Amino acid sequence: NAGVTQTPKFQVLKTGQSMTLQCAQDMNHEYMSWYRQDPGMGLRLIHYSVGAGITDQGEVPNGYNVSRSTTEDFPLRLLSAAPSQTSVYFCASSYSIQIVKGYTFGSGTRLTVV
Amino acid sequence: GENVEQHPSTLSVQEGDSAVIKCTYSDSASNYFPWYKQELGKGPQLIIDIRSNVGEKKDQRIAVTLNKTAKHFSLHITETQPEDSAVYFCAASITGNQFYFGTGTSLTVIP
């Protein structure tokens, strides 16, 4: 039982490049989400999914796309990277939003856009 | 939307002393309040949580209190140890599909 696995751990992109941050969980959690963590701003929700085939926007969705084709995987796509997207990205999951409980977080991806 | 404020941003205590971190929230509909501990280079880890129908919850050296009227909740760590040094985040949620996080408190326990 690995929990929530994020890859890569570190990434440097040039402005305008695209990439996909991977997130996988093996706990059969219905709910998955992506947060970004910036100094002095806490964690802010980018996108979330309450099940396979269902996604929705969070607080800061612009510049990011997601899809959820399986229960296990929830990749985050940066379409055209900008320096403002330099951040630490966390994937988080929870069993179900019907029973509200705290998240299980991955270990994060540190992204630098130059 | 919900706004969660967290204080202090940094906190230093001597080993064995207590540490208290406070959070306030704006939306009275929030009903679930988790606390997370984040060690350097790792993701946040849930350490304790409280629901709006409970005023206090304890787990060994950690306790959380909730005052719904004043819309604030606090994390209390007693008998602090060096391994308690980390960044602590509070959060609030209404529906479970979105959590609103505080800006974090960096706790340093001095041996």
What's the number of extended β-strand segments of chain B?
11
Amount of helix of chain B: under 10%
Topology of chain B as a string of helices (H) and strands (E): EEEEEEEEEEE
CA(first)-CA(last) distance of chain B:
41 Å
- Poorly predicted ranges of chain B (pLDDT <50, ≥5 residues)? none
Q: What is the mean predicted local confidence, pLDDT of chain A?
A: 94
Could you tell me the radius of gyration of chain B in angstroms? 13 Å
Count of extended strands of chain A: 11
| Quaternary assembly | heterodimer
Mean pLDDT of chain B: 95
If helices are DSSP runs of H or I spanning 4 or more residues, what is the number of helices of chain B? 0
Explain how this protein is built.
The complex is a heterodimer of chains A (114) and B (111). Chain A has 114 residues and is mainly beta. In chain A, 0% of the residues lie in helices and 51% in strands. In chain A, the strands form two sheets. In chain A, strands 2, 4, 5, 6, 9, 10 and 11 form a seven-stranded mixed beta sheet that branches. Chain A has a four-stranded antiparallel beta sheet with strand order 1-3-8-7, with no helix packed on it. In chain A, a hairpin with a 2-residue loop joins β5 and β6 (54-57). Helix content of chain B is 0%, strand content 57%. Chain B has no helices and eleven strands. Chain B has strands at residues 4-7, 10-14, 19-25, 32-38, 45-51, 56-59, 62-67, 72-77, 86-93, 99-101, 105-110. Chains A and B meet through β5, β9 and β10 of A and β4, β5 and β9 of B.
